[in-house]
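Dear colleague,

Following up on Tuesday's group meeting, I ran the structure prediction for the two-component complex that the binding team flagged. I've pasted the input sequences exactly as they went in, so you can double-check that nothing got truncated or mislabelled along the way. The structure tokens for the whole assembly follow below. Feel free to forward this to whoever is handling the docking comparison.

Inputs:
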Amino acid sequence: MSDREAVAHLLRRATFGPTADEVDAAERAGPAATVDRLLAPGRADRGAAATPVPALAADPYARLTGESTREQRQQANAERREQLQQVTGWWLDRMVAAEDGLTEKLLFFWHGHWATSAQKVKSARTMLAQLETLRRHGRGPLGPLVAAMVRDPALIVWLDGQKNTRKAPNENLARELMELFTLGIGNYTEADVKAGARALTGWVVDRRTGVARFEAKRHDPGEKTILGQSGRFDAEAYAALLAAQPAAATFVAGRLWFRYAGTEVPAPDGLAGADTVATLRTLFSSPAFAQSRGTLVKQPVEWLVGALRQLGVRPSALPEQQRKQLLAGLNALDQVPLRPPSVGGWPAGAAWLTTSSLQARLRTAGMLAAATAPAVLARLTAAPTAGRPDALARLLVVDGWSARTRAALTPLAGEPRKLLAAGLVSPEYTVS
Amino acid sequence: MDTLTRRRFLLTSGVVGAGALAAGAGAYSLRDLLDTSGDRDPQARTLVLVTLYGGNDGLNTVIPYGDPAYRAARPELAYPDGEVLRLDDDFGLNPALAGLHQRWSGGGLAIVRGVGYPKPDRSHFRSMDIWHTAQPDRPGNTGWLGRWLDSAGGDPRLAVSFEPALPPLLAGATSAGAAVPVSDRKAAKGLSAETLKAFEAAEPGESASRARAAACFADLRSVDEMIRQVRDAADPDTPDPDGEQAPATATGGARTPLDAQLDLVAQCVEAGVSTRAFSVSLGGFDTHADEKQLQAVLLGQVDRALTGFADRMSRTEAGRKVVVAVYSEFGRRVRANASDGTDHGTASDVLLLGAGVRGGWHGAAPSLTDLDDGDLKFTTDFRDVYATLLERVLDTDPGPVLADWRGRLDKLF
């Protein structure tokens, strides 16, 4: 693999999809320096600064009372949906605009890991607060992250934590905490689930303010035995116990590998580092990571955000109707940010390669090609017709076209927008 | 409330792995189902497997209303005697299951009670993997009907799902069933048919995922063709399946409700296609809180879809050879939680109707008081049910498919 191919591979996985200029700069710096710069960008992100977190009005539900009419409730619901759309639109825009692509992609990873859906949480402020928590702790060690998440209002609402009381424990949160977020199946018992649920009792969420608070009278202060340790565990102590398990570090590192390198190449041993940044450094530097080139199916959000960046399209600059079409495209592709399908998060691999997802990709690709910035299109048309498939490969940061794909693209060289759309649905672009 | 919908599970399961991929995930390479009309043995039966994702609460489906322990364990959640649709002095159906109740009275509904497996797993994902693979000790990466398909020659048209993704149960070691989406099949605009066809070619040396991405282009073409032909062949009086579909929404709701899926099954059966096993499903049964109303709505959907389908099937020769089996990955805890819901439990009921099915009770009802850590103890192994279906509906020796499992439900047929 040439240096250019190595840094292109790295940037495709570590960020949402590099532009040709970004690959040029990384090639000049070399692979090792590129890993360093990705993990410690060292300068303020102008793109992120230009897309500040939206300041939301108070939750429309806060003004409702027992006396509120049906119309007032419907109005509040409608406003809540609007706020959620606002946050989803903002996030998509941020993913495209940010210069520090690693941070934004890592946030999306954690969002899919602690998969919480606005479908049940409903409050945009609460969802946004969870993203901020994941952003704050996502690069660091597991302990503070887990400790913050067991008290995260969105997660508590999502997994019925507020219904988990001393008198009647609800196991939903404790189970998923161990199965999906920290240890993985096989590393705990049913008794641990029951005891863990007791440890988590007492935390409730004020649905009006979106704040989580501890109610001592709902908490079960008794002795519990979890993972062989006995004590009067509360949420914090339980979180600390989980985060300290070697199985947790291994499990989370495995999930990072799953998303950043895929499943066709097995994860190397010793991936887990002291914190997420250390794990990612080991991951990106491992020979197995290099071997995984060309095997990872892009998730729809990765596919779309990467394309928007490469084609010079900023969602917020689009007319409203096209912005809505973009989100409709993600919906048809089955991956809408803030709406993971289940607590298990989004699927991976061949699950994204279905006939119905191909149809949705074809439609969205056509829309993206139509919205492509003239300056970007000019780079394609500047090449002589015969050289346009190669110019397209450079634009979309594909290492090269197979004979099959070249045969599909060549007849379209005279129709640059169609050429773009075809590139976006090609196997080489869909699987990176 | 609905943290786990049916198709979401399909997409997140780990089961569809190497096997299906290696087989080129024949999943979608369904050629022309209708071309197989007439290929099949007219005596052959058809299995329609209905999966209820999320863990349906069996005790509020087939209700042990005569047992005082039922009401004691879930005072708020229990149905009063007067509301239960009586089956006998001890058991009754959920009030939402009026259609099935009527079938029971006519001897057309079989209920297998207490179906489960040893050392139950209360994770949705794991437990559903177990039901899909029929491998409770260590779910592998092939489904039980996928292994049947391997043994039956591997033609994907024999095992069909009208779902957007391949359900793990249809993934075999060397072959895979066909997943045919009901919705979203508007012809793609923009790129020409020639361009799309050019992408179909496999490229030597490329990764399995890239090969799959290329194969999608071929699949899209054949699926489009098949759906068009099935629908053209449909009785003109039959309502368009699209008409009954809930619109796709951002809320993650299922796009292909049971009605629409069963409609397509009915059309295929009536057209005499070669398919021997259909997989359909409904999600949303994960009722940790405020369960009663939610479950009633879902069971109402199941009841209407199943009885409508069964009525339609009873009107044709081919339809009278169809057996329907309904199951969920686990039941729910006997005792209600404080949220008027129930947590993940264990053994539950399997419902069967159709060709040759002997109505009435099968298997023993689990005790509500002699519990395993708060959960029902299973009385019938789910592999007994599978083995019986393989033998009596699919005319196959269950041995190779179910690791020489010996148990059967002797009186089911």
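DSSP finds twelve helices and twelve strands in chain B.

Cheers,
M.
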